[in-house]
Recover the amino acids of this structure.
């Protein structure tokens, strides 16, 4: 058999033609300004994103009217109209604050009525040319004789007391103290819980009696003989 011819030289491999990469563009001032603006926008937007924080839940305050101060012998709990259960706990605390406020005002009014009826007056002048003693010893007539400026000052002082007692935090309807606290000697702070409840019972009992007393004084002064306990001959 004839011999095969020797293989010839192999052809060189073909080279793939690739495009050269585009030249790097220099980072200009405008490009940097755009990047910085975008970064600041992202940071500013994240600042307004609400952060989820655990919410502290306050347990609802349970107020039992039977355990409040003022429920004492010989009457005990006296609520024939069911006002203590007509609302929630905040309603009950509002009723108690109103009762305590009226108790303190009427105790001052009753004491002032008795002192004025006894002919005891402040020394000095109420206004220029008008002494306290010139008002007389009948409380209603004395109040009518007080000048308008004097009545305005009294009502303004009462309004200030009412305002500052309402803006305190926590509010008394949220469990805070009721009324303005005036205890410069710290007597109440050094009392035991039993002593505090006893003093509160006394204050409410005297206040309830004073509310009845001042209404009786006014009724007897306006309509003589309308109050059997105050004879008509007793000039008040």
């Amino acid at each position: 058999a004839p011999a095969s011819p020797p293989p010839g030289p192999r052809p060189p491999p073909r080279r793939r033609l690739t495009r050269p990469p585009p030249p790097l563009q220099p980072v200009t001032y405008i490009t940097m300004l755009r990047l910085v603006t975008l970064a600041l926008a992202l940071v500013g937007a994240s600042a307004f994103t609400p952060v989820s924080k655990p919410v502290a839940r306050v347990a609802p305050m349970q107020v039992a009217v039977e355990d409040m101060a003022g429920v004492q012998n010989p009457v005990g709990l006296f609520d024939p109209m069911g006002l203590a259960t007509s609302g929630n706990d905040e309603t009950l605390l509002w009723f108690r604050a109103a009762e305590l406020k009226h108790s303190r005002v009427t105790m001052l009014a009753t004491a002032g009525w008795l002192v004025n009826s006894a002919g005891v007056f402040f020394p000095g002048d109420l206004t220029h040319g008008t002494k306290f003693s010139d008002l007389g010893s009948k409380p209603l007539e004395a109040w009518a004789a007080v000048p308008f400026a004097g009545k305005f000052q009294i009502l303004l002082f009462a309004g200030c007391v009412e305002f500052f007692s309402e803006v305190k935090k926590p509010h008394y309807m949220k469990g805070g103290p009721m009324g303005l606290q005036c205890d410069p000697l710290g007597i109440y702070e050094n009392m035991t819980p039993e002593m505090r409840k006893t003093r509160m019972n006394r204050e409410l009992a005297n206040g309830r009696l004073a509310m009845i007393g001042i209404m009786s004084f006014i009724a007897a002064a306006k309509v003589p003989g309308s109050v059997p306990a105050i004879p008509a001959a007793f000039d008040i």
Q: What stands out?
A: The CA atoms of residues 9 and 30 lie 59 Å apart. The two ends are 161 Å apart (CA to CA). Confidence is low (pLDDT under 50) at residues 43-60.
